[in-house]
Amino acid sequence: MDLVLSAPLQIPPRVKRMTDADFEKLLPEGDAKRVVAGKCGYCHNLLPVLSARKTRAKWQETVDRMYDNLLGIHKPLISLSDEEREYNVVVPDYLAKNFAPDSPQDSRVVSQWFLRREGPSHLNRNLPGTLLQGAAAKYVAMEFTLPPGAAPRDITVDSQGIVWVSETNTGKLGRFDPHSLTYRHIASPPGNDPKVQLNAVTVDPLDQVWLADDGPNARVLRYDPKSGEFDSYPMPEYPYPVPDNIPWARIGTLRFLDGYVWATGLISQRILRLNPKTRKIVQYAAPRGSSPFGLALGGDKMIWYSARIGNVVVRLNPGTDRLEPHLIPEERSDLRGLAADADGNLWVAALETGKLLKLDYRTGNFTEYTPPTEDSGPFAIDVDTKRNLIWFSEIFSDKIGRFDPSTNTFVEFPHPLADSDVRRIAIDRTNPNRVWWSSNRGDKIGYLAVVE
């Protein structure tokens, strides 16, 4: 455990996260308050709005960009109605008046910032106030700093224990050898557009590395570690006309399942299936406004995905294109990672409600579990299928959690430092006690290893 001894001795109590209703109360009165709360608050909470400080022109750019998203996600791309055109003027005026560059920050809003510009309020702020006990104390945490600006978005581990990461800012594939502690960049092949935007990454049973270049190039890449060569698979065009400034190929998750490469189109509202042998990509339309994110193969051999905004876990039958939604009990859960356990049941992380949910693929029934840390922010999920242990990241509490369904017990392992911003995780199949993580904003990767 990396305890910063130079920090103040008294660790402050953890700040409770505000609800959507709390954020709405902090919005100043005005003609556009209802619109901001309703439209902006539909896709995300209002913290980014309350925190931002921009000029009128910058607010207009933001509103235009968000409206493009809103139109593309929630309704057919048609001309704005008169009412919406008015919103497009009134909303930037309201935001510029109340959240200008020189507007003071509300201390209640600052307390909610996930990552503070000046660093964490206390370097040990998410550590427990007492010494760890029992299983929670039996682990080792390692952290590795990557070159500045790497921004490792996603992470995966091959059958040799080699770690692969997608560098969002550089457009390069990163390879980390934990045996020699060496890290190297691998440049992506040139695309039609010079901007390479890597996101999701996974490996197949032959240790071929698959990654999504989900920016303007809209392609899936395959990297062969033995030959050092890439292959490129262009994604199908989106079936609707779209604005030029929106990354419509945006891939939430990439998985190699049942011989195919599967991907969730987070903004393009579709599921993609790539056949590596024929190079053919088939797309399955998801309901507009659902924003598919996590992806898994259930015990019924069907594809299941979680929907961020739709608040559902959906069963996709690739043979019939039929979608069968399963509604989450709590509204606005903001579903993220999804994985199947050893029995083929689905586990999903609910970011905003702080829950871990199990979906029985046979009955469609949900069972809800609450981690020990309140409002911990479950995000990514991976499963140790040999022992049927559910691992998940907690981005609001700087922890990685483990849940044992056989005993209904949680264990939470704190990260060494505050504001780790751990999102994606991957179990090392060569050593299931080791769970790797990536920190997109922190330019870091690392692992925790359970000591038995």
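[next item in queue]
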Amino acid sequence: MKFINKIHTKGFMEGVYLAEPEANEIALFWLGQAGFLIKTPKGNTVAVDPCLSDFCEKKTGFKRLVPAVCGCEELECDILLISHEHEDHFDADLIEVMAQNGQFKEIWGPCSIIPWIQKFGLEKVYTQLEYEKKTELPGVAVTPVFSDHGAETPNAMGFVFDFREIRLYYAGDTAYSPELKKAVMNLHPDIAIMPINGRFGNLNPIEAYDFAKEMKCQILIPCHYWMYAEHGGLPLQLLDMEKEDSVPKVVWLRQGEGWVTGPDLV
């Protein structure tokens, strides 16, 4: 069996280059699955868990159903930020291409990705992250936080980005637990990016909405749905939750689409 005409969309990085968030704004692009690219007013770019290749299918048999927003050789960023080692978050085929071509300056992540760091010879540009230890970039501070993704991924993490006037919580892969609540609640995020597929140790739409509401987030951005058939995801449930209670507001992004927002979150 052979598949032909595998495509990816064109022009994604041009949109990133042209985005110019103002001093109190950020630009946020959805790469698909749990991948996002963030651009700061200083022009710094952070790619979080980008998944663009067929590496997941090679390792797990899960076939991507949505074209990648760009080719592996096109994605560029200053910081490549990894939450954990699962194939749809650490896309090894993508990262190998990016490393060979110098498409990122640094790679940050938990100790669980060190075998890959060593395999690709990235020791000089790798920063090992630990829970609650803040790392600074021009215009943003990144704090790794606990993620409850099961016993097989004990070092999985989420991230809180502090842009001074906006705080963004990227949950990574996680279920709801008292430990998760304790790790994130006191950081007071304005925006939450959360999985909604409800399988493989992740929040479902109702849990994601309720947790965002519990944190008093103004915005919820759903992710981790419809890339792979096996992962599932019922966004209609999230729409129903929003009808019952309009805060947090759900911001839906098309894959490849960007959203520029400031302190007023509009």
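[queue empty]
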